[in-house]
Design goal:
By secondary structure, the chain is an alpha/beta fold. 25% of the residues lie in helices and 15% in strands. The chain is built from eleven helices and 13 strands. The strands form two sheets. Strands 1, 2, 3, 4, 5, 6, 7, 8, 9, 10 and 13 form an eleven-stranded mixed β-sheet that branches. Strands 11-12 form a two-stranded antiparallel ribbon. A hairpin with a 2-residue loop joins strand 11 and strand 12. It is globular, with a radius of gyration of 19 Å.
């Protein structure tokens, strides 16, 4: 594991300006940050961190959209050793180009509010949502999807503190609102897993003290214990039936040894009536935790009833002719209106299967977030 958090490094290494954030679009080359190695801000295998940068233009040349990649976590030495042989633990295994789409698209028709901004995608290779073992952490302006979406919640206020008071600083968490829910066998699997992540990476000192002063550090990986204390404007984009959470929190493999949930947790259309009742209960618990975070005008909410995980990176989900909508508003328009203070947006969908705009997807790989 890195002996300096990549989060701390990126906060110092990336240029900061007004920003928001987190593939089908245009290809962007990778950049390796060799100078970070001497500082110990490295991937799990000791290789240099990396990012992809697409320069802005015109009215967006001084605006920055920084997206932290997701990819789950490793929770012990064994899983971290396995992970370091992959792109999620080593920049040596990363593709030299990746596609930017959705909120990272450079096309006006695909990304009306942020298309011409400077866009940075920070690659994820420390396995701890950028909370690894460090002496101190500087703030950063961040957003992202899944584990990256959790990163944007954990570090949102710290980034805000870095910038002048007049700067427009906001955070977007896409599919990062993981809830502390027992699985179908009645076991707190995800709570134990997150506790192992925090212990393995020495993350406690880098989690918000407003939470760790009251709760065990592992509990501070759950946004339900964080969001209420966040002062910076935050937009929560999430599916109420988040497919990763269904497959890994509600029905992890250990809770379904006979595979009775296999079809349902990979395709919601294959769920039995009794399984759907369990999913509706999960939705109810999810919405309860979201609602308890308050309804300040600075908070944005787009909680739809799709069976999907991450919606800002895919063009068809972010902004297209048949994108998911709430109140006749696409995700892109909802986030843009909220970021630029054109209007507030706090909407929660009706229960499955009422939403005909959803792109419910069939999944086979349940290993990453």
């Amino acid at each position: 594991m890195a002996d300096r958090s990549l989060y701390a490094w990126w906060c110092c290494a990336l240029p900061c300006a007004l920003a928001l954030v987190a593939a089908d679009g245009f290809l962007v080359d990778i950049t390796y940050v060799g100078s970070a190695v001497a500082k110990g801000a490295v991937c799990l295998d000791g290789s240099a961190p990396a990012y992809h940068l697409a320069r802005g233009s015109g009215s967006g040349e001084n605006s920055w959209l920084v997206h932290f990649e997701g990819g789950g976590w490793c929770n012990n030495v064994t899983t971290c050793l396995q992970r370091k042989r992959t792109r999620l633990g080593s920049s040596k295994e990363m593709a030299t180009q990746i596609a930017f789409s959705g909120i990272l698209s450079d096309t006006l028709d695909d990304n009306p509010d942020f298309h011409n901004w400077n866009k940075v995608k920070v690659r994820y290779c420390d396995g701890s949502s950028f909370t690894g073992d460090v002496e101190e952490v500087d703030p950063a302006l961040i957003s992202g999807c899944s584990a990256g979406g959790l990163t944007s919640i954990l570090h949102c206020d710290r980034f805000h503190d870095l910038l002048p008071p007049a700067a427009r600083v906001k955070c977007l968490s896409d599919a990062g609102f993981f809830i502390n829910e027992k699985d179908v066998a009645g076991v707190g699997y995800i709570a134990a897993f997150f506790n192992d992540v925090v212990t393995t990476h020495g993350s406690a000192k880098n989690l918000p003290p407003s939470c760790t002063s009251m709760l065990p550090p592992g509990m501070c990986f759950f946004p339900q214990n964080e969001v209420k204390q966040i002062k910076t404007p935050l937009f929560i984009l999430n599916a109420a039936y988040d497919s990763w959470q269904v497959r890994n929190i509600l029905v992890p493999g250990v809770a379904d040894p006979h595979g009775q949930w296999h079809s349902c947790k990979h395709d919601i259309g294959q769920c039995s009536a009794s399984q759907l009742r369990v999913l509706q209960g999960f939705r109810g618990d999810f919405l309860k935790e979201v609602s308890e975070q308050g309804n300040s005008d600075s908070r944005g909410l787009f909680i739809n009833s799709c069976f999907v995980h991450c919606q800002s990176e895919s063009q068809e989900l972010w902004f297209s002719s048949d994108s998911p909508m709430l109140g006749n508003t696409t995700i892109a328009n909802a986030v843009g209106d909220w970021f630029f203070d054109r209007s507030s947006f706090q909407k929660i969908d009706c229960p499955y299967p009422c939403d005909s705009t959803c792109h419910n997807r069939i999944y086979e790989d349940s290993s990453q977030a």
